[in-house]
Design a protein that fits this description.
Elements (H helix, E strand, L loop, with lengths): L9 H9 L3 H26 L4 H8 L3 H8 L8 H10 L11 H6 L5
Helix pairs in contact: 3-4
Length: 110
């Protein structure tokens, strides 16, 4: 009998511990999206050499609002605010819901 191999990969540990529960995977995708959004805003802001307060001034908001947007736990991202941030940072603004391959792979809902 061989010992199970040890891993430090968080996704493998979570999959082993919780299985492939669709509800859990959905929540994990949501958390990843929140983290990615905040991280993108922070990295883009810092690349432009702006403080949170300076970015807030450019979009007519407050420093605390920018701080919340950059927080991985924040779920209140509004499309309008993200559009303003993208414009202020001279970034393209796009929204994607799923992808065409995933849509084509599923049978149509009736």
């Amino acid at each position: 009998m061989t010992k199970p191999r040890k891993t430090s990969n968080a996704l493998e540990i979570i999959a082993h511990r919780y299985g492939r529960d669709p509800a859990h995977e959905r929540r994990l995708r949501e958390e990843r999206a929140k983290l990615a959004t905040g991280d993108l805003v922070r990295r883009a802001r810092e690349a432009r050499g702006l403080t949170q307060a300076e970015l807030a001034g450019l979009i007519g908001s407050s420093q605390s609002a920018i701080s919340r947007i950059e927080d991985a736990d924040y779920a209140g991202h509004s499309v309008e605010t993200l559009r303003k941030i993208a414009n202020a940072l001279d970034l393209p603004f796009t929204i994607s819901i799923g992808n065409h391959r995933a849509l084509l792979a599923r049978p149509a809902a009736r």
